[in-house]
TrEMBL record:
Naturally occurring in which organism (per UniProt): Acidipropionibacterium acidipropionici (strain ATCC 4875 / DSM 20272 / JCM 6432 / NBRC 12425 / NCIMB 8070 / 4) (Propionibacterium acidipropionici)
Stretches assigned to the Isochorismatase-like domain: 8-168
Pfam families (UniProt xref): Isochorismatase
Protein name in the entry: Isochorismatase family protein
GO MF annotations in UniProt: hydrolase activity
Keywords in alphabetical order: Hydrolase
Stored SUPFAM superfamilies: Isochorismatase-like hydrolases
Length: 184
């Protein structure tokens, strides 16, 4: 297995039950298909992996109040089992998860782990929500971002493709590629 660049970090975004459970209103139907590609990336990145979790928090300021009015099923305590990592994700965790109440996971907490201007490889869910929000914010902050398209799943296949197309417009700050291309 090839190794990732020594200055790179793999960020696995929100591999949680709420996005993997077919009964969930937020299920990313392609989730089962990304576990193998994320495993391949994780093998190449060793301990330079950061796993994130979306959690609702206890306060819902501004537009988050409307959001939770629309999606009341997700307004649960942060430690609810629905927000737990899927079993496969446990092997990717080498440090505490980065938990955030926002779609985008880029910010001070992530920068304190990966550095101010890192090379990030993003995988996870949902391509058309938390992945794109993280990619755009990280690129705006000066990170170099690669999105492993075959290690991401969207709310559906067309939304996944649309999000990948939008992110690819940000080249050279964001590059959408396959796991094979990233590891070559």
């Amino acid at each position: 297995m090839p190794e990732a660049r020594s200055d790179s970090w793999l960020v696995v975004i929100d591999p949680q039950r709420i996005f993997a459970d077919p009964a969930s209103q937020w299920c990313a139907p392609g989730f089962p298909g990304i576990v193998g590609p994320v495993d391949r990336l994780a093998s190449a990145f060793g301990e330079r992996i950061l796993v994130t979790r979306w959690v609702p928090g206890t306060e819902h300021p501004g537009s988050w109040a409307d959001y939770f009015a629309r999606w009341p099923f997700a307004d649960r305590p942060d430690d609810d089992p629905y927000f737990a990592l899927v079993d496969a994700a446990r092997r990717w965790v080498h440090r505490p998860t980065l938990d955030a109440t926002t779609f985008g996971k880029w910010g001070e907490a992530m920068a304190s782990v990966v550095g101010r201007h890192p090379h990030l490889v993003l995988a996870g869910v949902a391509t058309d929500c938390c992945v794109i929000s993280t990619a755009l914010a990280a690129a705006d902050a000066g990170a170099t971002v690669e999105v492993a398209a075959d290690a991401c799943a969207g709310s559906d296949e067309s939304n996944h493709a649309a999000a990948c197309q939008v992110m690819d417009l940000y080249s050279p700050q964001i590059r959408v590629a396959t796991v094979d291309q990233i590891l070559s």
